[in-house]
């Protein structure tokens, strides 16, 4: 197949994902597998370039029918939010620079153990073989098997060891010198005092993968990171502004609290006419809690009505957006301080009038820096305020034990 000619017909360059897939995969055209569901080709815009994407048909792995079944499959290496905040706190404590790397076409680096069949996308068909079926050993975004960039062998090559309780955090320890590598699918952050080793590590990774050295981290997973002498400031201002724009709340009047204390979310009201919009907004608000613990409780409350939201619930969501509009640049300032762990937890008793379950809240500080927090309804009904506090304490202890 003529990759360049085909890419021109798709109005993309020959270096985008589709061309890379052809270069990175072993392609042959066997007999087609038994009939299965075929999914249409999709595109994604990134930096103004549309990259063709294709869903793939595999006979080795069936499509999951539920979230429970989907979690049985291997997944991409991602890091927990508290881990990212701990790394930022370490960088602020020791005045380390945050070096950011990006792996290009991360899903092309994995070797599949099973046979994969893929319907040939438009513009890439082999006219000599109209079977419309491709068998490949490596292919982009294989259904249910996105684990392509496997760095578990880094300890054998680069002296990096992965943590058992945090498989996306790699550590190198030489004497009193520690180097941390944080992995989130294809985004990497490296911090540590040994800048020579970090330079060598980047060069070694470049030999294995196509990577982009982005220098000091400024944007990571939608977080705006600003380093200064006083510490590291992190906020999600750009993400919030985009959310306000898509929700039509850019000119809304701001308010000083994220939720009204007099609002009863269980009041009978007409259903909201666009439940999908409600779910999208609440999902975006959940991601904003990455750097905004002040909205954790309010977002937890509106998240309990995703199945059938009413106009009152949507009004509560708009109240949170109005509060955020007045504080778009508010975030977290990581600064130097002690390294003691402090945790504060609290709960209400039978605060939910519908099922009389309680809500547990906690926040953990590493020195002066908040690194983990949660607001969540308890799974059981407590018979006394003491029982509520013990349940809250147990939840907090589990999180604290994981951090330690």
TrEMBL record:
Domain (Reverse transcriptase Ty1/copia-type) ranges: 73-260
Entry-linked SUPFAM superfamilies: DNA/RNA polymerases
Protein origin, superkingdom: Eukaryota
InterPro entries from the UniProt entry: DNA/RNA_pol_sf (IPR043502), RVT_2 (IPR013103)
One Pfam family per UniProt: RVT_2
PANTHER family membership: GAG-POL-RELATED RETROTRANSPOSON (PTHR11439), REVERSE TRANSCRIPTASE TY1_COPIA-TYPE DOMAIN-CONTAINING PROTEIN (PTHR11439:SF463)
Protein name, per record: Mitochondrial protein
């Amino acid at each position: 197949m003529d990759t360049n000619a085909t890419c021109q017909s798709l109005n993309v360059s020959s270096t985008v994902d589709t061309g890379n897939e052809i270069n990175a995969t072993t392609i042959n055209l066997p007999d087609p597998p038994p009939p299965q569901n075929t999914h249409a080709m999709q595109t994604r815009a990134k930096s103004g370039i549309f990259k063709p994407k294709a869903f793939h048909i595999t006979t080795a792995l069936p499509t999951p029918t539920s979230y429970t079944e989907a979690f049985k499959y291997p997944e991409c290496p991602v890091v927990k939010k508290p881990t990212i905040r701990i790394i930022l706190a370490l960088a602020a404590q020791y005045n380390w620079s945050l070096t950011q790397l990006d792996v290009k076409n991360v899903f092309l680096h994995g070797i599949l153990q099973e046979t994969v069949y893929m319907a040939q996308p438009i513009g890439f068909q082999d006219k000599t073989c109209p079977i419309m079926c491709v068998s490949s050993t490596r292919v982009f975004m294989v259904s249910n098997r996105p684990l392509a960039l496997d760095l578990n062998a880094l300890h054998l090559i680069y002296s990096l060891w992965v943590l058992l309780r945090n498989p996306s955090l790699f550590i190198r320890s030489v004497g009193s010198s520690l180097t941390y590598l944080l992995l989130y699918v294809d985004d990497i952050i490296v911090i540590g005092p040994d800048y020579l080793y970090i330079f060598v590590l980047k060069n070694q990774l470049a030999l294995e993968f196509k990577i982009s050295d982005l220098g000091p981290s400024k944007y990571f997973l939608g977080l705006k990171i600003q380093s200064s002498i006083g510490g590291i400031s992190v906020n999600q201002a750009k993400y919030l502004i985009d959310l306000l724009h898509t929700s039509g709340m850019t000119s809304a009047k701001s308010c000083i609290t994220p939720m009204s204390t007099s609002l009863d979310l269980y009041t009978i009201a007409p259903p909201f006419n666009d439940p999908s919009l409600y779910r999208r907004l609440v999902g975006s608000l959940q991601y904003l809690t990455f750097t905004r613990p002040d909205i954790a409780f309010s977002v937890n409350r509106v998240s309990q009505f995703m199945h059938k939201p009413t106009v009152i619930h949507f009004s509560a969501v708009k109240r949170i957006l109005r509060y955020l509009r007045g504080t778009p640049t508010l975030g977290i300032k990581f600064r130097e301080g002690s390294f003691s762990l402090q945790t504060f937890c609290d709960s209400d008793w039978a605060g939910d009038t519908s099922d009389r379950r309680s809500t547990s809240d906690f926040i953990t500080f590493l020195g002066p820096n908040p690194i983990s927090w949660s607001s969540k309804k308890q799974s059981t009904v407590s018979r006394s305020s003491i029982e509520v506090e013990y349940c809250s304490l147990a939840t907090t202890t589990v999180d604290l034990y994981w951090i330690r």
